[in-house]
Structure formats: C-alpha cells, structure tokens
Design goal:
Blueprint: E1 6-11, E2 17-22, H1 25-58
Antiparallel strand pairs: 1-2
C-alpha cells in the first residue's frame, strides 16, 4: 500500500472537477470504481424497466 497523502482529481456526472486528498488511495479508487459499476447496473435496471413499459404500451 502507498504511504502518504495522494490527491485524486476526477469529474462527476455534472462535469464539475472535484479534488480530494486521501491517505489510502487504493481503497478510495476501488470505492469509486465500485460506485461507477453499481450506478451502471442501476441505469441498466431502469432502462430495462422502461423498455418493458414501452413494450407493454405498444401491446
């Protein structure tokens, strides 16, 4: 594990740049990746429900 503080910069969904300082970058980076993965899954679920509704309305 890296030691010391690491400054991470990333853009959120509204394209605002965010700068944070963390002492355990691997854990923080993993959390960001996990959050992104979960958000993609949530979007797919919502899209799936929307598609089901659309198909239902056509029928």
């Amino acid at each position: 594990m890296l030691t010391g503080d690491v400054i991470l910069r990333f853009c959120n969904l509204s394209d605002e740049e965010t700068t944070v300082t963390v002492s355990q970058p691997e854990i923080f980076t993993y959390d960001l990746l996990e959050k992104d993965r979960l958000q993609k899954e949530e979007n797919e679920i919502v899209l799936g429900k929307h598609e089901i509704r659309t198909i239902g309305w056509r029928g």
